[in-house]
Amino acid sequence: MLLLVRSADDLGASIEAAGAFLVHLRRRSVKPREFDEVLGLWLRRELDADLPTWIWPAPESRAGVRVGDDPVDASGPGPRETAVGIREAFSLLGLWSLCWIDGTLLREAKNPGERRLRLLESLATDAAPRASRPGAFFPVFEATEPSGSIEPIMRELGDRFPHLVGGRWFVDDRELGLLVSKSAHR
């Protein structure tokens, strides 16, 4: 998941509300989704306006025509899956949007750190300059993440995306929601 917040002025209230929403969803779920993790928080004026939508391969129907294909030319291939895109989103009054993201790049990644890096590599190239300000992406780590591993990850992200990654990070605690953490020392 990716939490998009409209402005720094809305950050505190958005983190509290989105965190409470996540806790509620997780408590209602019988089993956690495989990738039910928040990878980052991104300050973006237009929220998800110019981010890619996740397109998946259409399933085969009984007649051999793929859903979404042109029924006149059923021999052609269906749409290809998007490398990274928004699968679904929940937004509150245009202040924040919690986006479930999916795609081949994310599913092929071995761990949250690799998924976070692939997400930034995919989205930052086109979408970041138009809708974000410098220091607008803040990584989110699982509460179980070893504290000693966060600083090196923050340095790597800051080195690779110096105009996008901010010096602060957040923690996703499945029972308490999103928590503000400390700043990185670069």
Work out the helix count: 5
Work out the oligomeric state of the chains in this entry.
Answer: single chain
Q: Mind summarizing the main beta sheet?
A: 7 strands, mixed
Through-space gap between termini: 26 Å
Spatial sequence of strands, sheet with the most strands: 3-4-1-2-5-6-7
Order of helices and strands: EHEEEHHHEHEE
Taking pLDDT < 50 over at least 5 consecutive residues as the criterion, the unreliable ranges are 61-76
Strand content: 25-35%
Give the total of beta strands. 7
Notes on the protein architecture:
This protein has helices spanning 11-28, 104-107, 112-124, 128-131, 147-160; strands at residues 2-5, 40-44, 85-92, 96-102, 132-142, 168-173, 177-183. Helix 5 links the parallel strand 5 and strand 6 (168-173). The chain is of the alpha/beta class and 186 residues long. It is built from 5 helices and 7 strands; from the N terminus they run E-H-E-E-E-H-H-H-E-H-E-E. It is 28% helix and 26% strand. It has a 7-stranded mixed β-sheet.
Topology:
Blueprint: E1 2-5, H1 11-28, E2 40-44, E3 85-92, E4 96-102, H2 104-107, H3 112-124, H4 128-131, E5 132-142, H5 147-160, E6 168-173, E7 177-183
Parallel strand pairs: 1-2, 5-6
Antiparallel strand pairs: 1-4, 2-5, 3-4, 6-7
Key attributes of the depicted protein:
186 residues; alpha/beta; 7-stranded mixed beta sheet; 5 helices; 7 strands
In summary, what is this structure?
With 186 residues, the chain is an alpha/beta fold. It has helices at 11-28, 104-107, 112-124, 128-131, 147-160; strands spanning 2-5, 40-44, 85-92, 96-102, 132-142, 168-173, 177-183. It contains five helices and seven strands, in the order βαβββαααβαββ.
